[in-house]
Amino acid sequence: MKLYHYVHCPFCIRVRMVLGLLNKPFDSIVLPYNDESTPVNLTGVKMLPIMDFGDEGHFNESLDIIAKLDSDNILQNEKLDSDQRVLVEELLSAIGSNVHSLCMPYWIWTPEFNDESRKYFQKKKEVKRGPFNQLVHKREKFLSELYQILSTLEESVEEYYMSNSLSIFDIMIASHLWGMYIYPEFQFSDKIHQYLQRVKRDCRFDYHVDFWKD
Question: Which of 97, 102, 103, 209 has the maximal Cβ count within 10 Å?
Answer without folding.
Answer: 102
